[in-house]
């Protein structure tokens, strides 16, 4: 969890250019952003506007970016690959449109695993997993594998997994985009409630304006810039 007193993430003049067939495509053209501890921010924009690219930058998931990315007070660009991995593991959680659960592990085990990787003992990790899953209404599904769960239930497991290591910041990329409207509403409500209860910050990329306005702040990504 984040003990740093300043912003959990700070972007300064972040740029990303892709080259395609000899043409330079500026996806991010100078993004400046600060997200404070406990703040839940919506990132609105149509498909192809660069929302996922921006989340990948903050998540330290790929290179090729210009500008400064600071996570919990640590400037990431100069770090080694191993140090970036540690920074990501210690401070960030991820929820994607598709849950990416491990099919051979049950719900509890999917939430236990990232804790074991971070060095947590198995007993406390198991307790933490069951606490989160129960808070998400899955107390009766702890031993079920992903194939035995509905789409909404699988995404709830993914939310629990993202919060398992008490991240300073959760990055969610269209976390309800693969669900029907009613299920999406319920999963998002539970996600927001749990994130707020945990005291984490979150950046949620979505094209759903109705869902976005339930968050603390709404940003729009348009032509590579935040508005």
From TrEMBL:
Family of the protein in this entry: Belongs to the ABC transporter superfamily. Macrolide exporter (TC 3.A.1.122) family.
GO biological process, one term: protein localization to outer membrane
Keywords: ATP-binding, Cell inner membrane, Cell membrane, Membrane, Nucleotide-binding, Transport
Protein name listed in UniProt: ABC transporter related protein
SMART domains in the record: AAA
Lineage: superkingdom: Bacteria
ABC transporter domain boundaries: 9-227
UniProt organism field: Novosphingobium nitrogenifigens DSM 19370
Taxonomic placement: Bacteria, Pseudomonadati, Pseudomonadota, Alphaproteobacteria, Sphingomonadales
An example molecular function term from Gene Ontology annotations: ATP binding
Any one GO CC term of the record: plasma membrane
